[in-house]
Amino acid sequence: MPVLQFIWDRITALLSTALLLLTLAALFAIYRYTAFHQEDDAERLRGKRDYLEQLSGLPSSGRAPNIIFILYDDLGYGDVGLGAGDKPPIKTPNIDRLAANGVMLSDFHSPAPVCTPARAGYLTGRLPLRAGLPNVVFPSHDNWKGVMARLGDPDSNQRLPAEEITLADILKARGYATGMVGKWHMGDVSPSLPNDFGFDYYYGALYSNDMTPFAHYRNRDIAVPAPVDQRRMSEYYTREAVDFVRGHANRAFFLYFAHNFPHDPLSVREERAGRSEAGLFGDVMEEIDDGVGELVAALADTGTLDNTLIVITSDNGPWFLGSGGGQRGRKGSTFEGGMRVPFIAHWPASIPAGRVEPAMAMGTDLVPTVLDILGLPAPGDRVLDGRSILPVLTAGSPTPHDYLYYFDGESLFAVRSQRFKYRGAASVHYGTDQMPVAFGIPQKEWLFDLAGDTREAYDTSLRHPETLEELRRVFEDKESEMADNLRGWRGEPR
Predict the structure, then answer these.
(1) Catalytic residue among 37, 109, 115, 401
(2) How far apart are CA 244 and CA 358, in angstroms?
(3) How far, in Å, CA of 313 to CA of 250, rounded?
(4) Rounded Cα–Cα distance for residues 391 and 375 (Å)
(5) What are phi and psi of 45, to 5 degrees?
(6) Taking the C-alpha atoms of 16, 17, 22 and 26 in order, what is their torsion angle to the nearest 10 degrees?
(7) Strand, helix or coil for residue 364
(8) Active site residue 185
(9) Cβ atoms 366, 390 nearer than 8 A
(10) Backbone dihedral angles phi then psi of residue 287, each to the nearest 5 degrees
(11) Active-site residue among 37, 109, 185, 346?
(12) What's the confidence (pLDDT) of residue 494?
């Protein structure tokens, strides 16, 4: 009996200790969640304000073009244009017409292989890690992923820092009417909403269409309560984009049209279902293409098509469905299939038609290119990682980049020149269909010769040792640079 009592006392003590530890862990988690507060840099906010005031005071340099930036979600390199082949299963005549009458880039890359950081890179001209938003953000309320994100890394930003300067900020300062339609996904609270970052008008969703609660907003108010009927989403977005173009034909305008599709889950109206040879994915894409046709028709009707720069691209490679155009990897991967995406630019007044250019480029180039078009200075207090590709678009010039850098989250995975791509020693995920989770299998550094191996199938480091050494050095230098000045600030804050 004393032995049994001893065992029971020990069990009771262990249970009490375990309960105490669980209670302390729960209290700590509650503290970390409630204590989370993202701070903005007051000195850099003043630098942003001063820069935008400088831009607003500069004289006009001729007739500024309208700009429409169309960004699709999870559209693969092989879903339209170059990578789709001679007989594509998806029919996109309106997008194809823009490509035929404009220029396509065959070596264009998103700033990141997933959506939030990619959008930050496109709109700021900075690598997502510099822009302070290297990871996907989740709804701040009523979503367990958002809670876990805050608990896992309380120092991680959950919205685009207010001191960042977006393309809309720049164009608004220059007198453009600025509008956005579609997916924002860079924070769902002020001061990081679209209307806080230079957009006069906003209609769309604050995050991905697989997140909840999924509502549509008009400016800061709910326009379509959750759950939005996603079968009508393309209809809603096209209507809003066309209305914006028609309503601002008498002044320079910037429209950022960031569609939630073809991100999963996919939906179309019943009368459109089953039309495409590519199944539901194709049905969605063909409705998207019809929307492009309506938008171009509105430009033609209002006499603004000739002097409107239309850019079409994607935030990363394809997810569960869609085509990477035969490239290795998909969304979430820094192999080419995750980051090389379609790119079409159409501007009849300035871009000669019917060309395909091989110069490598990245989404961070969008802001510097627009600055170049308008003859505007870049902000002096921060690094812009992009370069102007205006000469590439208008004259077929070589790439302005010596190297491109492939980040996922806070880690650099690869660096490339026009011909070669170096991948640092890293794990490559492996799993079979029956395995619920894929595992990272460590690999040594690799060197791919993209001139003959765009699928990144063969390591050529033994054949090109000097190139391996060069790109390894560039890789390590970039890691050191980012460690020394993560946000890329220049000069001392005032």
Answers:
(1) 115
(2) 34
(3) 27
(4) 14
(5) -65, -40
(6) 100
(7) helix
(8) yes
(9) no
(10) -70, -40
(11) 185
(12) 41
- Bridge partners of 67, per DSSP, are 254, 309
Whole-number average pLDDT of the chain: 93
Give the residue among 213, 184, 166 at the shortest CA–CA distance from 115.
184
Structure tokens at 36: 């989370």
Model pLDDT, residue 15: 78
Give the pLDDT score at 63.
Answer: 81
User: Which of these, 334, 392, 393, lies nearest to 109 by C-alpha position?
Assistant: 334
Strand order in the sheet with 177-182: 221-224, 216-218, 201-204, 177-182, 253-258, 66-72, 308-314, 344-346, 103-105, 355-357
Q: For tokens 């293409």, what's the residue? A: 289
Residue 129, phi-psi category: left (phi > 0), alpha (psi -120 to 50), beta (remainder): alpha
| Separation between Cα atoms, residue 237 and residue 346, nearest integer Å | 21
The dihedral over CA atoms of 356, 345, 232, 330, expressed in degrees to the nearest 10, equals 50
CB proximity list for 455: less than 8 A, separation 6 or greater: 326, 327, 328, 336
Strand, helix or coil at 315? coil
Q: Residues 415, 423: contact at Cβ < 8 Å? A: no
Stretches where the chain sits below pLDDT 70 are 1, 25-36, 142-154, 492-494
Nearest by Cα to 188 from 210, 154, 159: 159
The number of residues making up the chain comes to 494
Helix 279-301 and helix 93-100, axial crossing angle in degrees, nearest 10: 60
Which residues 6+ apart lie within 8 Å of 478 measured at CB?
Answer: 405, 412, 415
Secondary structure percentages of the chain, helix, strand, coil, to 5: 35, 15, 50
**pLDDT in the model for residue 143:** 64
| Side-chain half-sphere CA neighbours of 282 within 13 A | 13
Range list of H helices, 57-114: 93-100
DSSP labels for 218-265? ETTEEEEPSSP-GGGHHHHHHHHHHHHHHHTTTS-EEEEEE--TTSSS
DSSP symbols for 129-150: TTTT--S----SSS-HHHHHHH
- Active site (annotated) includes residue 109: no
CA–CA gap between residue 182 and residue 234 (Å, rounded): 10
Structure tokens at 423: 């991948």
What b/e readout covers 89-126, taking b as 16+ CB neighbours within 10 angstroms?
A: ebbbebbbebbeebbbbbbbbbbbbbbbbbbbbbbbbb
Residue type, 224: V
Residue 206 neighbours by CB under 8 Å, 6+ apart: 139, 183, 184, 185, 187, 188, 193, 215, 217
Q: How far is CA 410 from the centre of its chain?
A: 15
Q: Is 189 exposed, middle or buried (0-12, 13-18, 19+ CB in 10 A)?
A: middle
By CB atoms closer than 10 A (0-12, 13-18, 19+), residue 394 is middle
